[in-house]
Automatic annotation (TrEMBL):
Annotated source species: Dyadobacter pollutisoli
Record's protein name: DUF2029 domain-containing protein
Keyword field: Membrane, Transmembrane, Transmembrane helix
Segments passing through the bilayer: 37-60, 112-132, 139-162, 182-213, 220-239, 276-294, 301-318, 324-341, 348-366, 386-407
């Protein structure tokens, strides 16, 4: 449980720093208004990403654990020229392992994977500045960037967990920024298709509401279909149907989600693990995202995407039985930079609690043996199990709160 206590300590320290910075919000925002964006973001990244990396992995000599071991298996084999899905198993899109393998050419170590995740997180923040610039002054964005870099959900999941979920947000806003500057729908479609090939299968979910709102549907569809056909033409002769391996992730039972909480209350009679839950989860998450997108069809793209992204992936986090609380890293940037009101004490307190729970629970749950509760008495069988179940309830409840916060009301529209 040492990793759990370490994450708890980091979460508490990070939260205290966030509170301290918020107390000086006006003064810091005014001060940051005069600072250069690129230099300030680079300084923040060095202080809150690179230095923690150096302290943990180079000075303290800690070795990466958890998901990094799986990423290392994929990346190292890809760097040696092995074929994804045929020579090694992967739950990710086909180009993911080769991107990691490229960076391993510079430093053949699992620590390089963590550093790669930190670099991509920094790029995502930099791209987000250009994405949100029309709605936020320089000082406000930079202040929010400091808060984001400090939050446990980004700091721990990036430097200790080495999660890649933020890549998905990066690709979708890059696609929009390129379209905005070139006015070419084709480039927008190509970058979205590359994002799908580089990240996870769940990236395809955001394409549904984006396609519904797209006025030039054919121009969006044609490049994506061409890239899809080329990808299949390359993959199928090499690996056959093994390229569907990422879909197997939907069969993996994790927690917390609505099913894991309800299962003991219904004496294991709700069919946890059955495929129909995956389809129900997809229908709910994509359906809510499409409804939110339609309500915001006349809003600026940045407004629409920020809210729809949170609604889609936060909902997926609690309705898909294969999702777990690390998925907070998927939607933390739009939540921090656009949705959260940093003057609202209730929202701030709940966000800090949410962050801490999301980074602590996966390690705690895994070290308990990944329990699946069957009866109402199971969670009370021990103090440790009760703590786990209460954390699950809190995470699901808080996720629901932030979905509600992001979902557009008719009055707002």
């Amino acid at each position: 449980m040492s990793i759990v206590f370490a994450k708890l300590a980091i979460s508490l320290l990070s939260s205290l720093l966030v509170i301290a910075i918020l107390l000086k919000r006006d003064a810091l925002t005014s001060w940051l208004e005069k600072k250069p964006v690129n230099g300030t973001l680079l300084t923040g990244w060095v202080l809150l990403r690179l230095l923690p990396f150096i302290a943990i992995y180079l000075i303290a000599g800690q070795e990466p654990t958890s998901d990094v071991n799986g990423f290392w298996d994929e990346g190292s084999k890809a760097s040696l020229g092995q074929i994804v899905y045929r020579d090694f198993w992967s739950p990710y899109s086909p180009l993911y392992a080769y991107f990691l393998g490229f960076w391993l050419k510079f430093w053949y170590s699992p620590k390089m994977i963590v550093l790669t995740m930190a670099l991509m997180d920094g790029v995502a923040i930099w791209a987000s500045y250009h994405f949100f610039r029309p709605f936020q002054s320089k000082g406000i964005f930079l202040f929010n960037a400091v808060l984001y870099l400090l939050l446990p959900g980004s700091l721990v999941l990036c430097i200790i967990g080495a999660q890649e979920d933020v890549w998905m947000w990066l690709f979708v806003i890059l696609a929009y920024l390129v379209r905005e500057r070139t006015l070419w729908v084709a480039w927008y479609a190509i970058i979205l298709a590359i994002g799908l090939l580089m990240t996870k299968a769940i990236f395809v979910l955001i394409l549904v509401p984006l396609f519904i709102l797209e006025k030039q549907k054919i121009r969006l569809l044609i490049p994506m279909v061409i890239i899809g056909i080329i990808s299949l033409a390359v993959l199928y002769p090499l690996v056959g149907w093994e390229f569907t391996q990422p879909l197997d992730e939907a069969k993996t039972l994790r927690a917390p989600n609505i099913q894991s909480i309800l299962n003991p209350l219904f004496f294991n009679h709700i069919g946890v693990g059955e495929k129909f839950w995956n389809w129900i989860g997809l229908a709910i998450s994509v359906g809510l995202a499409c409804l939110a997108a339609l309500r915001l069809r006349n809003a600026d793209f940045r407004v629409m995407l920020s809210r729809v992204w949170i609604v889609l992936y936060a909902t997926m986090m609690i309705v898909q039985q294969s999702a777990y609380s690390n998925y907070i890293f998927l939607f933390l940037i739009p939540l921090v930079f656009y949705v959260i009101d940093w003057k609202n004490k209730t929202q701030i307190a709940l966000l800090l609690i949410f962050n801490a729970l999301c980074v602590i629970h996966p390690s705690y749950w895994w070290r308990l043996g990944m329990p699946c509760y069957m009866t109402p008495s199971d969670p009370t069988a021990s103090t440790e199990l009760l703590i786990d179940y209460v954390m699950q309830i809190c995470i699901v409840g808080l996720t629901g709160y932030f979905i509600w916060l992001a979902f557009p009301r008719k009055s707002e529209v």
